[in-house]
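During the first year of the project, the team set up a workflow for recording each protein of interest as an amino acid sequence followed immediately by a discrete structure-token representation. This format lets reviewers and collaborators read both layers of information side by side without switching files. As required by the reporting guidelines, we include two representative entries from the current panel. The first entry is reproduced here exactly as it appears in our internal archive.
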Amino acid sequence: MDKIINVTDLPYKMRGSKKIIDWINCDKERVSFNYNGVTGVIIVSFIERTNGGVKLLVSYNNKSVEMYNSNLIKGKIGVLIGQHSKEHKYKVGQKINNVTILKQIRKKDARNNNILAYVVKCNETGKEFV
């Protein structure tokens, strides 16, 4: 599916002969997007320049998140528009596929990204797993 952010809606400046996005002058800029069939307009504003890039405030339907400009360009707006959740799907004590959820945790995957995980107990053997 597509994750398209129309960055041509953002202000530009010239650096030599190259045209680049002028992130610092972004102030409530309206940017259209198409994220897996969901289309709309997000509002982008500059917050601060950091060692990691430029931090932006991105808003959609009365919900706002802070993100780096690189994540905006990559189309990482799923949480903002409600396509992804940062919350666990299952509750503690819930039984799913012969296991019981004991604890909700966050851990790092092989690429050092934060992921949602669970500590579960097998209902047949009584063993606990992450």
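The second entry, processed by the same pipeline in the following quarter, appears below.
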Amino acid sequence: VDNATVMTEATLETKTENTINTTIGTFSDADGVQNVTVSIYSDTGLTTQIASNADGDFTGLTSSTTYYVVTEGEAYNELDETWEFKQSAYLEVTTDLSDPTISMADQTATVNIFSTSDELSAPTITNVYDGAIYSIEGNPIPDDLVIDANSGVATYDGEAGAGDFAITYKVTNPDSGNESVTFTLTVE
């Protein structure tokens, strides 16, 4: 008689934008077990393995990505006298969103009596996600400096107000962090 293999999925300990740490699940069989590991896959069919190890800690993962973690190994089949590969049900884990990063050079705009706009150079932003909100802050903010909260495009439509202004440009990801950069806007 072949004894049943008892398997439970790994349990989640912690996760970040590029790591998943789990505790190995139960994997036992009265006939014997070997090569028991925790493995992480990129698909629910468990066909594309990303990594496998004995401790269940995985690094170098992609942010905001869903992975599938299983306890797996070989259980001895007493009837056939063979080792059989078996997997637990999977634990579905989505890594966290990364915080955005941003950099921006100082900008120059011109006082314009013809009411045309100077579009400011765009900042360099990484890890920005759909639904991000853009804003500007300063004390003071020059009249007619505006930002599109959805696209992040900033323009200066000023007809007066020459000077140097310290402006903070901020991007906030949905369900994640935010980042800001301060630059000098020179209005001539």
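For the second entry, the following points were noted during internal review. The longest strand covers residues 66-77. The radius of gyration is 27 Å. Both points are flagged for discussion at the upcoming steering committee meeting.
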